[in-house]
Amino acid sequence: MGKEFICIVCPKGCRIKVDDNENITGYTCLRGLNYVKEELTCPKRMLTSTVKVSNRKDTYVSVKTSSSISKDLLLDVMKELKKIRVEAPISMHQVLIKNIFNTDIDIISTKEVK
Fold it and tell me: What is the pTM of this model?
């Protein structure tokens, strides 16, 4: 039956196919090939969310992972983000959680809160 992927690495959006023998076709660059190989073995995504700022009423700071994280961990990370509270001031790109779940990936702020 095979699988088909639309590459998200660049704006080209190559349609990459993997047949039943795991032959990969349709990519136009090595980044596309590597993307599909990762999707087949250990898919990862960037996670974006918000975290409550405890000393500012009704204020949240936007956050993201410092790099792509395994899709298997996304819900666990979201649960952890729901629990934490941070205090202003917060600078842009400030590490709010270091090495979440021992992944070498940090949770960083994406905006400033004075």
Answer: 0.82
